[in-house]
Amino acid sequence: MTPPTWILDVLAGVMLTVAGVSAGRLAAARPWRRGTAVTDTDIGHLLMAIAMAGTLAAGLRTLPSAAWVVIFGVLTCWFGYRVARDASSSGVRALAGRHCTPHLVHSGAMVYMFLALPPLAAASAGMARMGAASQALRYPSLALVFALVLAASTVWDLDQLSGRRYRLESAAVTVGCRTAMSITMAFMLLVMI
Amino acid sequence: MSDLAVPGRRAARRGRLGTESVPAAEPPDARRALQLGLAGISLLDALLQYQPVMFSRTFGQMLAETAAGNPGFIARPIAWDATLVQQHAVALNAVFATIQLLLGLGIAFRPLTRLALAASVAWSLAVWWLGEGLGGVLNGTANPVSGAPGAVILYALLAVLLWPADRVESPPFTAARAVGVRTAQGLWLVLWLSLAWFALLPANRAPLALHDLLAGQADGQPGWLAGIENGAASAVGSHGLAASIVLAVACVLIAAGVFLPRPAARAAVVLALVVAAVLWVAGQAFGMILAGGATDPNTGPLLALIALAYWPATPRVAEPGVAGPSVETPAS
Prior knowledge:
The complex is a heterodimer of chains A (about 190) and B (about 325).
Chain A: H1 5-28, E1 37-39, H2 40-56, H3 65-90, H4 100-116, H5 119-132, H6 140-162, H7 169-191
Chain B: H1 9-13, E1 16-18, H2 30-49, H3 57-65, H4 72-87, H5 89-108, H6 113-130, H7 151-161, H8 176-179, H9 181-199, H10 202-205, H11 209-217, H12 223-236, H13 240-257, H14 262-283, H15 300-309
Helix pairs in contact in B: 2-5, 2-15, 3-4, 4-5, 5-6, 6-7, 7-15, 9-13, 11-12, 13-14, 14-15
């Protein structure tokens, strides 16, 4: 069984919107120019949103699962490195205020999801076909752990977003995209348990 | 756009990879932290409502089953609601899940916290009746181990206790801030004494009742959780009566704790946290989420949140020369 297809399509649409916003921000940063900076969060958002949209929508073909595992494995290592560096320079408590921690969780969740997908879904068939074949994620306990962390991360982000923290418009966009991705990812994990 | 750049010549030549700068995080106060806990559980609840089985007729049948044994004036609306849900399962469940999602997000988003908490009370009361059959309170099937008096009524209780108002100048615990000390103590007493009462209901104190309940929770669970459930069932064995009495005594001690001096009150809250954890893991198997088809994470995490709302405040010594009470009112 799967949720109604239109719900999966709506969420895929939201993910493609996030991907579009992230791509726009990356293009606006003009990374081909000397001395410009590209945010790793936008790269992460772009890749995760495309991967999730491909898993949600049956008609959308992206990369095979193995390729996504490699990509998100690299991202997990990158954000893990950033988190470790933040922790050593500013202390563990400061991690709550950094963007890297939730992105580490997101990347880890993506690696888990693509590794735990049953064969049919892993072959780019998406959630719809997976449900029709009555297949579920392997190691479901990990899915629940990731879903709990993502839910906690979402409410924390919303609290901070609505507080005094994010006055910068760009940061609000980042948090908005992240919230949409956290909810969608938690949804996917719980539905596929 | 970036505050940190990766050092290296190649990175400097083209684009640099960095992370967006953000101001320091604001740590929430105790009540806000508990509100965020409630928001997180509501969010999880909402996402569980989007599970495939909830969009089928099975969901309506689950609702219909809660009418059994209830008085007619309670059961008839449940039957009507269940029929409606069976006929329009997809549309209605999408609405239900989305409402719950918005409640969870609303509590977390500060400008909407009041509205979301108020809506959460109304929603919870409606679902407690039409979706949970008042948690089995009126038909003798309520069992604290399996989730009595119903997770959803605890959402309403938490929304009231965590309402953003300050009626007491020096509240002895967080829950007293919104409703006052006496009302908060009364609600705590009613909750835990009712759990003690439910534990001793004839259906729950039968020799094999608890064993069968725990063993039944193992179905469809991952191996490690099934092992916990089966181990707990074996440990209880045919001593259902003794186990029920132990649970009831623990609930009575917890209920009394809120009226005791601070050290004893803290011990009671710790005991409440332990009971909540044991109920959630062994009794409720994490709300049966891992077995699929769970509608909520059950009462364990909500009981823990309620307990934390009654954690006695640390005495605050005023600076010399500053007017006002030097120590906050103790829990006693």
